[in-house]
Amino acid sequence: MMRRVHFARRVTKLWAPVEAPGLLKVTNLQRSACHLPPKKVMAEEKPWALFSEVGGEGYLEGVIGIMKQHFQLICHKDFLMNPLEYGPKIQALFVWNCHPSAEPSLLTSLPSLKVVANGGVGIDHLDVSYINSLGVKVTNTPGVVSAATADMAMGLLLASARKIVEGHLISIDPKTTYLPSSLMGVEVSGSTLGIIGMGNIGYKIAQRGKGFDMRILYHNRTRRCLEDEEAVGAIYCKNMDDLLKESDFVVLAVNLSPETKHLIGHRELALMKDTATLVNISRGLVVDQEALLNALRSGVIQAAALDVTYPEPLPRDHPLLSLPNVLLTPHAGTNTNTTVRKMVQLMVENAVAVVKGSQVPNEVKL
Ligand SMILES: O=C(O)C(=O)CO
User: Fold this and answer.
1) Residue nearest to ligand 1 atom 4, measured at CA
2) Which protein residue has the closest C-alpha to ligand 1 atom 3?
3) Where is the D-isomer specific 2-hydroxyacid dehydrogenase NAD-binding domain (predicted)?
């Protein structure tokens, strides 16, 4: 009996703090020392998050795993089955720059929401002031997207210049005979690369261009420091027109804003060389698409390689889809295993920080 009382006391002593908030918690190591079952980390202890995603299940597994380490996660389609039950619990909303996104109808059904954590750097698909007016913070993932997006820019540039997709199609079609003249490309090495927008992504494109011995021109709101320019051999063009006139490849790497909407229109395309290629990895709306169509049809410029359009995806009957001098990818600039994981990791870090009220790594401030 004595022994039992003694044991019970020991146990009470060890158990008590767990049930008493604010006091020291008992670790599972201490529990196993006195033969208690390990304390289960109850699912309810994690905050709820909604993942606004419609992508394929396989791809999502890794992504969801990262989110589930810190949140009780519900995907959009499950949320829609019972919005009244889940809505009041959700504290974090994870979004990409595709739909379904942070629409007002969704936001107003989430009264406990604290953060919209965006995957990607561009937040033009979010109405940040409206979201902030609901007392909700917006975060994004700058930095981690830059290398993959710059790779995509170079990939599009090379594929368009060297007709890589056409070459593939010829190679796999037994009925086609390869005539070198039908795949005549544009020399990339030694050509002039004009980069519009010299933030993180633009600068990484310049680094890659340097590796191809390209002459690099850039236009940006603010000039880079001399050290940055010299490291990649980039020449600043205060006037964007000079860049457009001289470049063999014009790459767009600006954020979409009211100032950059339709930055490239009839006038700008007309300034470009008729042998030039336009590469866009920023946002479709940076280019006046009607003007681009005309320029491509009438030979004002030679080609376009676009990771972004408007809308996305383009309707099946859109004329851009049938032009032979257009190369399209489906807004896939960041879509590598490594970068998607880094983005999701950062989305989660941002959301956890907001929910906990600690320093937020990447809050979007207007
Ligand atoms: O980082 C961004 O803004 C993207 O477009 C990623 O897809």
Assistant:
1) 120
2) 122
3) 154-333
The values of phi and psi at residue 338, to 5°, are: -65, -50
* Rounded distance from Cα 328 to ligand 1 centre (Å): 16
Condensed to tens digits (0 to 9), the pLDDT of residues 234-260 reads 999 999 999 999 999 999 999 999 999
Distance in Å, CA 202 to ligand 1 centroid: 13
Predicted confidence (pLDDT) per residue in 107-162, tens digit: 999 999 999 999 999 999 999 999 999 999 999 999 999 999 999 999 999 999 99
pLDDT at 3: 40
Q: Which atom of ligand 1 is nearest to the CA of 333?
A: 7
Give me the residues of the chain with pLDDT under 50, please: 1-26, 43
State the distance from the centre of ligand 1 to the C-alpha of 145, rounded, in angstroms. Answer: 7
**With contact defined as beta carbons under 8 Å apart, do 133 and 116 qualify?**
no
pTM for this one? 0.86
The C-alpha atoms of residue 271 and residue 76 are separated, in whole angstroms, by 46
Interface predicted TM-score (ipTM) of this complex, two decimals: 0.95
Residue with CA closest to ligand 1 atom 1: 120
How far apart are alpha carbons 98 and 120 in whole angstroms?
Answer: 11
**Residues acting as catalytic residues:** 283, 312, 331
Which residue blocks in the chain are alpha helix, DSSP H? 2-19, 28-33, 57-68, 76-81, 83-86, 104-107, 128-133, 146-161, 164-172, 200-211, 226-232, 240-246, 266-271, 289-297, 337-356
* Residues whose beta carbon lies within 6 Å of some atom of ligand 1: 97, 120-122, 145, 331, 333-334
Distance 204 CA to ligand 1 centre (A): 15
